[in-house]
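Page 47, continued from p. 46.
Same chain as before, 751 aa.
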Amino acid sequence: MSLRRRTELLLAGLLTLVLALDLLFPPPLPQGNLQGLVVLAVDGTPLRAWPSADGAWRHPITPAEVSPLYLEALLGFEDQAFHWHPGVNPWALARAGWQWAKSGRIVSGGSTLTMQVARILEPRLSERSLRAKGLQILRALQLELRLSKREILTLYLNHAPMGGIVEGVEMASRLYLGRPSRQLSHAEAALLAALPRAPSRLRPDRAPQAAQAARDRVLVRLAEQGVWSAAMVQDAQLERVAAAPSNQRLSERWLAPLAAERLRQQASEPERHAGRLLSTLQPELQAGLQTLLADRAGQLPPKVSMAALVMDNDSLAVQAYAGSADFADSERAAHVDMVRGVRSPGSTLKPFLYALALDEGLIHSESLLVDAPQSFSGYAPGNFQADFSGPVSAADALRRSLNVPAVDLLDRLGPARFAAHLRQGGLRLRFPKVAAGSAEPANLSLILGGGGTTLEELVGAYRALARGGLAGQPRLHPEAPRREARLMSEGAAYLVREILETGGQPGRPLQGRARRLAWKTGTSFGFRDAWAIGVTERYTVGVWVGRPDGTPNPGHFGANTAAPLLHELLALLPDAEGPRRAPPASLSQARICWPLGGRAESTAPAHCLQERSAWLLEHSAPPTLPDRLDSSPLLQQTPCGERLRWPLALSPWVEPATPCGAQAQAFSPAWELQGLEEGQRLRAAPGQGGVQIELRTLGGGDQTLYWLLNGRLVAQQPAHQSLRLRVPPGEQQLTVMDGAGRFVRRRFNVG
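Result:
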C-alpha cells in the first residue's frame, strides 16, 4: 500500500473518529424553553417576561436587532477574528501558552467568542486549567461544525452572563439602562461588552464605579485597535454609568401584564419555544393607561378595580389593555382580568335595541314613546333618577337612557330574539343558572342588565356604530384572524351614533366637544358594575369599574365613576379623527307629527299637535306604537265626533287632544285621593321651608299605585297604605296613577 493511500486512510479514519465522537458527545445546545418568554408591544417594547426553565431572565434577540455599536465593541474587545477562525484562534492560543510558560500561571486564556459560548453552555469548562481549556477548544470546534457564525453569535447575545439571573444583552440593556439594545450609545455598548467578564462584580446597578472602570478599559482597547476613533472614545468616557435601582422588581416594570398573560396562555408550543410573542399594543398609550388607572385607584374605595380597552376601528387591533387597576395591588384582585370578566352590562345594551327597532321599522328617531309607570306582566321598571318624563322621542329616550321605553321596545321585539341577534353580532349574553343547571330564558330585564357579558365583547359590538353596522372581535395578536359580523344596518348605525353624539336631532350642533364622541354609560343592579363605552371615528374605548368579587359599590355608577375615566383616557389618544362620514343614502330627514307619528305633510293640521324634525330610515315614518292600555286607535270616529288622543299612560302629562266626555269617563279610577283638594293652598310654618302632608286613597285594594310629584316618582306602594310627603314651597302638581293608566291629579300651592 502506498504512502499516499495510507495517509488518505489515516485521515479518513481520523475524520470518522471525530464525527463519531461528535455524535457520541454532542455539545449541550439549549433545549426546550431555555430562552424564557417575552411578550412584546407592536414596536418590540417588552410588555412582560417569564424566566426560562433554568430560572434565568432572557430576552431573545438576533444580531440584526442589536445596535451595530455593541457588535463592534463585543468583537473588537473579545474576538476580532471571529468571522474567519474555525472556533479557535491559533495566534491567541500561542500567546496564552507563551504567557503561561513564562509566568507559570494562566495570564490570558486566548478564548475566542465561540469558546466563550462553549463555556456558557457548559459551566464546568469555566475552570482555569489546561484540561478545561482543552475541552473548551473541542467544544468550540464542535459548535463551528454544527452552527453558523450568526447562530453562534446569537447564542452569545442571548446567554452571556450579565449579573445574577440576568442573561443576554437585551435583558441587561432593558434592566440596567432602561432602553433596547438597538439604541445603545458608544459608552453603553462598551459597558455591556465588559460586563460578562465579571458580571457579579461589575453590575452597574450595584457597583457603578467598577463598571465604569471596566467600560473604560474596553474603550481604550477599541481605540488602540482602531475599531473606534480616539475622539469617539474620549466622548464616551465622559458619560457616567447610571443604572436603574436594583431594588425595583421586574414586575414593577411590566406593561400590560394581564394582556401578556393572556397571549402566553393562548400561544402554541412553537410560539412559546421561539421565546417571543408579538402583540398589537402601543407602548406609549399602554403606559399612559396604566398610569391613569393607578392614579385613579387611590380615589376609589378599597378592593375596587378598573379595566379598560382601546381598539382601533379599522384593524380591530387592541391598542391598550388593562385588566385591573394596578397589577401590584393585590387588595384590588390585581390578577383578575376584568376585560374578560362576565358582568352585568347595565344599560349599555340599549343602543343595540334601538338599532334593531329602527331596522325592524318600529320607530324613527322622533317616534313618540311613553315614559310613565307601566307594568309588563308584573315587571315594573323604574328609571335611574326615579322620575318619569311622560312623552319622549326615541332619540331622547336613548340619550337619557330611560328604562320604561326600552323595556317597552324589548317587549315588542322579544327578549329571546334580541339576545339571539346580539349573539350573532359577537355579543353573547350569559344568564343565571336555574336549579336544573340550565340557563334561565332571556326576559325583559336583560335590557337593564339582566344578563352578563364582557368588556371585550361590548367594545367589539360598539365598533359597529363607527363602521357601518359591522361589529368586530378585538385582536390582541397581529396574526389573529379578522372577525366581523353585522349587528345593524348602516343607516341604523349612523343614526344611533348620531343620537349618542348630538341627541339625534337633524342640524343639532356638536354639544361643546372638540372631538366627536358617541358614548353610553351603564350601571348594574346594586351598583356592582359601572360602565362607559365611547366611539370616535378611529377608536372604540371601553371602561369598567367595580369589585371583581361582585360586591356592591354604593354611590358609584357609570356617569360619575366610569365616564370621567373614559374621557381622561380619550385625551391620551392621538387626535387624528379624519373627516366624518356622510349619512348613508338609507337615511333622510323629514318633519313628523305627534301624537300620530307620521309625516307632517301627510297629517291634517288639526292632528299635528307637535311637529318635530326626525331622521327616517329607508324613508319610512312608522306610526306611533299601539297603546298598551287602550287598544283603540289614537285617531278614531266616536259618537261625539272625531277623537284624537295621546297614549293613555301619558294622561298625567298632556291635556286631552280632542276630549270626548263619555270615553274619558270610562277610564276614571275606581279609587279616590283623600287629603288634598284641587287648587288647595297650603301654608308652611315659619322657618320650615315646606309642609308635610298625609295622603291616602279610598278603594283600590292591593293594587300598586305610583305617586308622582311634578312628574318625579316619590313613592310606589299598595293602594291601602297612606303616604307622608314633604313638599317644598311653590306651585305643585301631584299625580297618583295605577298600572292601567288611570290617574288622579291635584294642582296645589305651598306658600
